[in-house]
């Protein structure tokens, strides 16, 4: 509803509220967050999760490679 996924009328009906009241709440919520970034779409959230997972894996690989490089640098002395 706030993100435009469900009509205000449907949400109001489901919760036994006035459309006007729910509409006012949504309008106020949107006004208070006018400068905020728009919410991510489902596909964007999925992509973000995938990139965060990839980032964690790469960080682990980097840490391992740094340790391996330090080990082999000591071995060659």
From TrEMBL:
Keywords assigned: Coiled coil
One Pfam match: HTH_Tnp_1
Gene3D superfamilies: Homeodomain-like
UniProt feature coiled coil, ranges: 41-68
Domain of life: Bacteria
Biological-process GO terms, alphabetical: DNA transposition
GO MF annotation list: DNA binding; transposase activity
Keyword Coiled coil carried by entry: yes
Protein name, per record: Transposase
